[in-house]
Amino acid sequence: MTLELPTDTQVKQAMDDILAEAVRTGRTATVTAVERRLGLRHATFYRHYQPLITDYFRPKAQVGSQPTATAAGATDAETGRETMKRLRRENTELRKLVNIYAETIRQLTLRASEAEKALEAQAGVTQIRSWRQ
After folding, report:
1. What are the boundaries of each domain within the chain?
2. Which of 21, 74, 113, 120 could form a disulfide with 125 if both were Cys (CB 3.0 to 4.6 A apart)?
3. Cα 21 → chain centroid
4. How many CB atoms lie within 10 A of CB 80?
5. CA 78 to chain centre
6. Where in this chain does the entry annotate a coiled-coil region (predicted)?
7. How far apart are CA 38 and CA 130, in angstroms?
């Protein structure tokens, strides 16, 4: 089973779409959003498209997320509320990402344990368990 990866051109288009959507909605453009759009896991995406992420997407995303000049007539309280909303959204997105990573680590740990047991069984290794367990 081979996964057909998108071309660099397709990835750039997805990145540009996410950047445009971020400008339109006022949200922060994230690599996670690009990964979702392309249907790729983070590790796969980063492994195959790391130069595009660091050289193409992140500089544009940082420019787009820079605070803009306060709108005419906006008070500091309104600006503060908008900042808090943005920070809460980003916090929520980061918490979701941490949960995804934790689950991935859990699954990889289980797979490694299963592979270790299978290898030991195939090699004829006998485990001697401690009486203190």
Report:
1. 1-64, 87-123
2. 120
3. 17
4. 10
5. 30
6. 77-104
7. 49
